[in-house]
């Protein structure tokens, strides 16, 4: 090779390092002019220069005319296509390279694996993996790292972990790739555990490691782990740059610690849009919505303009607040910045206007969207449904189908909730048919929505069938069935669901235990009731006023008044319902004096008794023939502003009838604002028979027939 050609070669090398495309083109002219274009080394180097500078057209033309490109040239043209986002073309070039019998270098493999990850080409990735094993390159740590990255980007975490475990040598990149991949695929716990394992092996985390594990902590709401990671960053002497700082702000926000997020944010020497978005997003996630909206002005004071992520967060804040004025101001800013055609922002605007109750504007934004996806339709449907226009919501669902938009699980759940709110099982059944067609009938969110629909519509058998078909049930599924059985007075079936939950290792929540305690009371299941009480105590639910009151009621129905009283006495602030449960228990067991003591104590505490208490007291006085006391309670009831109901009238009439005051009982039934019903007259008729008053008995019979 001549001196001029050698000089040109050195200049091309310098050109490639500096990515100087202009100089590369001048050298290309020089090479042609001096008839050096036949020199293979110069030709190869030119291809590499154009490929590295991003001029794939020029690189490809030279490559096609090259008689025998070297391995380095193949490497340059393949990596150039990958860098330019032309992954499919890069994989085609690899196929040609194989056809020519050339062996790929580890660098080519890493480029091709990156290409597979970028386009989710899982099959081609497997093919490459097999080639790598055949060529003996699987032991190379850089190739192994590229395989892990490819598999995680293709959503195949199990295969990524297998490659990771088989690496004989792991560097910090190996750990970073598997930690980041686990976090991105939603397995934050695994990412955190891998970070701990990394430290145990003596590997030294770098900034990329801390970024990956911080994101995992945020996704898993693992605040304590996040704090430890933050502490280790400081101990490792890693500089808190804007990228890591923004990541920590985001992590603390997602973990619910706005104070720490703000603290890290304030300590940043410089902030960018990512830092601000992380802070605003944290405020919105923790529903500190008003403060989140105020941060927009502070961000502008920091000479930063909002981007589409900022608007997504702030529109969500306005949705939560129901603040139409703030929402319209944000909409104006969105229009000013030309972001209204962004699909995500458009959907957020539809959702915001719907949540703020302005369905006219929600519909207008929806109609003007240049493209609509299932999220757009779902936002509009939910808006109509939540604002009580359920039939409009179902029309939206039908229109979506007409436009050939395929519903997803969220859309199906929204549509089923709409059907549930108006008891429309006909439309619900049609939706169920579409769910089956979409192969989503086993989805637990959809299953729960179907259960709720059939339960609220009183379709117990359909609900039972859906429940039994679900492979994966959760607490919500079980609670829906428990409540359905309870409403239909099938207490034993209710308790069977609790047994099923326990057999599957599922932890009952407050709603579960509350409902099961009610079921035990209704069927007199004393032993099961005691076991449920133990579970309630174990989970520290007994102090809850609703749970405690239910237990008082349950033990009262069992006749276990000592237990009922013990639970009642442990309640910090018993309400009227709590007192009623205890008073009813005493009255039903004939302990009239205890019931009356409770009534006096209730009034002494300034609580307003309800009508149910007086029904119980009248019945108790009736059984004890305490006429004067019964009338005293009746006067108290009137003084408390409680209008007598038919039930009150009947109880008072029965009190008089049992005591032999038959005429007074008749007068009460005839003169009360709520005249007695058939039960009152039948009660008087029975008393007339007992006391031998045929004339009044005949009159009572006539009244009972008339009523």
TrEMBL record:
Q: Which regions does the record annotate with the repeat PPR? A: 70-104, 171-205, 272-306, 373-407, 443-477, 575-609, 610-644
Q: Does the keyword Ligase apply?
A: no
Which InterPro entries does the annotation name?
A: PPR_At4g14850-like_plant, PPR_rpt, TPR-like_helical_dom_sf
Record bears the keyword Repeat? yes
Q: Which UniProt keywords apply?
A: Repeat
Q: Which GO terms describe its biological process?
A: RNA modification; system development
* Gene Ontology molecular function: RNA binding
NCBIfam families xrefs = PPR (TIGR00756)
For this entry, the protein name equals: Pentatricopeptide repeat-containing protein
């Amino acid at each position: 090779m001549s001196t001029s050609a050698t000089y040109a070669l050195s200049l091309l090398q310098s050109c490639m390092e500096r990515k100087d495309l202009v100089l590369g083109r001048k050298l290309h002219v020089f090479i042609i002019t001096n008839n050096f274009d036949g020199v293979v080394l110069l030709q190869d180097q030119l291809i590499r220069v154009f490929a590295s500078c991003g001029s794939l057209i020029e690189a490809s033309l030279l490559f096609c005319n090259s008689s025998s490109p070297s391995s380095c040239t193949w490497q340059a043209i393949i990596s150039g296509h990958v860098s330019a986002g032309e992954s499919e073309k890069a994989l085609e070039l690899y196929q040609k390279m194989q056809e020519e019998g050339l062996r790929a270098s580890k660098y080519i493999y890493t480029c091709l694996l990156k290409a597979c990850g970028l386009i989710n080409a899982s099959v081609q990735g497997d093919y490459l993996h097999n080639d790598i094993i055949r060529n003996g390159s699987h032991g190379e740590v850089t190739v192994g790292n590229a395989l892990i990255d490819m598999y995680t980007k293709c959503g195949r975490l199990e295969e990524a972990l297998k490659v990771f475990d088989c690496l004989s040598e792991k560097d910090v990149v190996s750990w970073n790739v598997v930690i980041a991949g686990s976090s991105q695929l939603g397995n934050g716990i695994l990412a955190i555990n891998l970070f701990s394992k990394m430290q145990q092996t003596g590997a030294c985390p770098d900034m990329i490691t801390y970024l990956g594990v911080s994101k995992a902590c945020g996704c898993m709401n693992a605040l304590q782990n996040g704090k430890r990671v933050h502490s280790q960053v400081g101990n490792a002497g890693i500089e808190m740059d804007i990228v890591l700082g923004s990541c920590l702000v985001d992590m603390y926000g997602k973990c619910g610690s706005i104070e720490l997020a703000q603290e890290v944010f304030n300590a940043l020497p410089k902030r960018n849009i990512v830092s601000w978005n992380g802070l605003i997003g944290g405020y919105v996630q923790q529903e500190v919505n008003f403060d989140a909206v105020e941060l927009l002005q502070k961000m502008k004071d920091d000479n930063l303009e909002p981007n589409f992520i900022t608007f997504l967060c702030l529109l969500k804040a306005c949705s939560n607040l129901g603040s139409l004025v703030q929402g319209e101001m944000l909409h104006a800013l969105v229009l000013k910045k030309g972001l209204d055609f962004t699909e995500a922002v458009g959907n957020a605007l539809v959702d915001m206007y719907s949540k703020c109750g302005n369905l006219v504007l929600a519909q207008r934004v929806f109609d003007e969207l240049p493209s609509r996806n299932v999220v757009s339709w779902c936002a509009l449907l939910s808006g109509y449904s939540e604002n009580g226009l359920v039939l409009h919501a179902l029309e939206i669902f039908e229109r979506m189908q007409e436009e050939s938009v395929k519903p997803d699980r969220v859309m199906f759940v929204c549509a089923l909730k709409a059907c549930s709110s108006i008891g429309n099982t006909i439309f619900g059944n049609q939706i169920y048919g579409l769910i089956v067609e979409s192969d989503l009938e086993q989805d637990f969110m959809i299953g729960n929505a179907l259960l709720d629909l059939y339960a609220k519509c009183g379709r117990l058998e359909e609900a039972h069938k859906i429940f039994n078909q679900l492979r994966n049930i959760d607490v919500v599924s079980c609670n829906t069935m428990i409540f359905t059985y309870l409403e239909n007075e099938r207490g034993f079936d209710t308790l069977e669901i609790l047994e099923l939950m326990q057999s599957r290792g599922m932890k009952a929540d407050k709603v579960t235990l509350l409902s099961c305690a009610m079921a035990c009371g209704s069927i007199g299941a004393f032993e099961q009731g005691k076991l449920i009480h133990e579970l309630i105590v174990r989970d520290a639910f007994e102090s809850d006023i609703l749970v405690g009151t239910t237990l008082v009621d349950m033990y009262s129905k069992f006749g276990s008044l000592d237990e009922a009283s013990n639970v009642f006495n442990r309640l910090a602030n018993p309400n009227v319902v709590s007192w009623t449960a205890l008073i009813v228990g005493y009255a039903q067991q004939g302990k009239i004096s205890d019931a009356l003591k409770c009534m006096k104590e209730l009034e002494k505490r300034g609580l307003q008794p309800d009508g149910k208490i007086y029904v119980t007291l009248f019945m108790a006085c009736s059984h004890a023939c305490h006429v004067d006391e019964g009338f005293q309670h009746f006067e108290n009831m009137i003084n408390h502003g409680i209008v007598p109901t038919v039930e009150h009238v009947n109880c008072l009439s029965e009190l008089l009838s049992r005591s032999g005051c038959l005429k007074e009982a008749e007068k009460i039934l005839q003169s009360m604002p709520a005249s007695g019903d058939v039960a009152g007259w039948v009660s008087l008729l029975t008393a007339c028979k007992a006391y031998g008053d045929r004339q009044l008995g005949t009159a009572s019979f006539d009244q009972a027939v008339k009523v």
